[in-house]
Amino acid sequence: MEKVTENFFRWRLDQDELRELLNTRYSLEDQRELISATVQSRLNQTFPVDSQFYSRFTKHIIKTLEGEGKEVCDELYESLRVPVSCSDGPFKSYWIGDQTVSLRETREIISCGTTGLSTWTAGVHLCWWLDSQPGTWGDGLTVLELGSGAGVTGIFALKQFSLKEYVFTDCHHMVLENLRENVAKNLPSATNYRVEPLDWENRDVNNLACDIVLGADIVFDTRIIPDLVDTIKTLLSRAKEAIIASTVRNAATYTNFLQELESAELKSTDLSYKSSQEDVNIIRIQWK
C-alpha cells in the first residue's frame, strides 16, 4: 500500500500494482485504509492532488473491485461524488527520508513558456543524495541553488539541515512566484531563505555570495552551457564547491558540459550516486 500511496501523491496510476494490491486487500476495512491514506488523507486535504487524476484513481479502484464482484465501501463512492478541491493547487507530494515536500505544479511539463513549474527527476535524486549526508551537512552555511524550479531540493534541505540561509534562484517570473508560494506553504515559519532572480547570461551574483552551490537538471541545452559554467565559476570564487545532479538524457550534451568545466579550469568529481530507475549523475565541482 505504501507504493500505491506514494504514486497517488505524484499523480501516477500503476494499474497492475493497484490491481495486485486489491487482489489481496479488498475487504471494506482494507478499502477504508487505502482511501484514508490517499483521497481522504489529511495530506490530500491540505495539498490536494490534480482533480482529474483524483477522479481517475478513484474510478479505477471502484471499477477493479466491481469487476471482481467485490463489495465497494460507501466512502469510495462518496469520495468520487465530492472530490477535494483547492483554489491554489494542484500539488504533488514527495517523500524523501523523514521529510515530505508538497509542491504546486502544472500538469504539463512545459507551461507558460518554461519547464520550471514542475519537478524534474534529478531534483528528487539530489534530495536523496542530501538525505545520505551527515545531519550536520551545511550547518551554519549559505547554500545557493541554480534553477530551483518548483523548489523540491531547497525545501527538503531547509527541513533537513540547520542552514544559515538557502537562496533559491531562477529566471522566469512565474517560476519565481510559484517558488515563493511553495516555500511559504511548506515552511510558513522559516525566515532563513530568499528567492532571487538569476539569469546565467547576465550573471549578476554580487548579492548572492554562498558557501555551497546546488543544481539539478540544469544541463539540458548546449546553447546555455557556457553561461551556466561561467555562472558556476563566478560563484566558486567564494563558494567551496558546487554539487550538480543531472538526468543524462543526451550523452553528447552532458559530455559537452564536462568539457566546458575542464576548459574553465574546474575539476569535476563523480560522486558515484546510483539509481536503479533513472540514469542520474551527481558531481562535485571545485577549482583545480
Helix percent reads: 40-55%
**Main sheet attributes: strand count, strand direction, barrel closure:** 7 strands, mixed
Strand content: 15-25%
Categorize the overall geometry: elongated
How many distinct beta strands?
9
Q: Compute the CA-based radius of gyration.
A: 21 Å
Alpha-carbon distance between the two ends: 48 Å
Order of helices and strands: HHHHHHEEHEHEHEEHEHEE
Mean pLDDT rating: 92
How many helical stretches? Answer: 11
Molecular structure report:
The chain is α/β, with parallel strands linked by helices and about 290 residues long. About 40% of the residues lie in helices and about 20% in strands. It is built from eleven helices and nine strands. The strands form two sheets. The chain has a seven-stranded mixed beta sheet with strand order 5-4-3-6-7-9-8, sandwiched between helices. A hairpin with a 2-residue loop joins strand 1 (about 90-95) and strand 2. It is elongated.
